[in-house]
Amino acid sequence: MASGGSNAGSLTQWLREKGFDEDAIGRMSRRCRNLHSLDAGEATGVWDYLLDVVKIERRKLRHVVTKCPKVLTLSVGDKLIPTVQCLVTLQAKPGEVAQAIVKFPQILFHSVEEKLCPLLAFFQTLGISEKQLAKLLMVNPRLISYSIEAKFSQTVDFLVGLGIDKEGMIGKIMAKEPYIMGYSVDKRLRPTAEFLKSEVGIEGSYLQRVIMSFPDILSRDVDKILRPNLVFLRSCGFSKDQVMALVAGYPPVLIKSVKHCLEPRMKFLVEQMGRDMGEVVDYPQFFRHGLKRSLEYRHKVLKQMNSRCSLSEMLDCNQKKACVDIVMASGAPTINTEILGTYSAIEALKKFARLECPEDDLDNPFTKILPVIKSKKVLQSYSVLHN
């Protein structure tokens, strides 16, 4: 390696050529003290390998180097190539190794080969296959840096203590929420579980089902997120039992933004739809639906038809299917598929709504039930949904 003075100037110029400004170079120098002792030629080798072989986008590669400048000091032959090849053998999809490095550049400093075998053995006891482990590592590459004894075992013991102990259950939780293993049991997971039990009232099998269906809830901060949402729900007039039913039926209700999600939907439900808030208890997934694209559109359809149906009948279908389902739920006669022939209800409605099919087109079997469609305002409701 050449002398430090000439290397410093050479590397600084090289970094400028790669698009790093003076502020970024200064931060990188503070993060990696021996950075400027590095030869620009060695840095070029690392840069070119990550850019051309691993296929990290240039913009993202600058982010990686800024975040972890020590990456430039790695030996391409002795460290980078073996580590990347090991990650590739995990049957990662194209581009996933690059994404993993961008998320957690420090993965390149770990002995992946040495850690993979014990990690795989541990996760297999939880019902996680090698293929699933590969997926978890690509989503959360930081897992490779955790200790089995100090980190993973503690989290598993905690979940078992909550009654989540049946074969494969913890593996399913990890598959849904790969980041859960990174949180402190004592500082985050246990306080959240205690909050759900003591303040929300969810215990035993109900708590297990909530965690299984939405494990992300355990990783949320009680004071910053969960408690404010609980306070809002109670301020709406929901009783403790109703709140418990809401959370059990749709756990994300405790993490959704009060300002941007919960409050405007409750306001629309009561003031615009004229419905009782108790209907939400019967259908907690109400909070999952978009205000503009789903709630307002479908309410507009029902209002124009002067019809009414339950929230689940109104919302439990995709937008294309919504019109027909709402009409049927609100009392329109069943459309005979034999009469329709090769026309689906939706396609036929599309044609009539867009006036692509004249009423006297006798070759169109849907014409035979046009009077029924008009009388029930199906045509108008479809137009409302799609205009």
UniProtKB/TrEMBL annotation:
Keyword Membrane on entry? no
Q: Which Pfam families match?
A: mTERF
GO: which molecular function terms? nucleic acid binding
Superkingdom of this entry's organism? Eukaryota
Assigned keywords, A-Z: Transcription, Transcription regulation, Transcription termination, Transit peptide
Recorded hits in InterPro entries, A to Z, give: MTERF, MTERF_sf
**PANTHER family from the UniProt entry:** CGI-12 PROTEIN-RELATED, EMB|CAB62602.1
The name this protein goes by in its record:
Uncharacterized protein
Q: Which organism is it from?
A: Leersia perrieri
Upper taxonomic lineage? Eukaryota, Viridiplantae, Streptophyta, Embryophyta, Tracheophyta
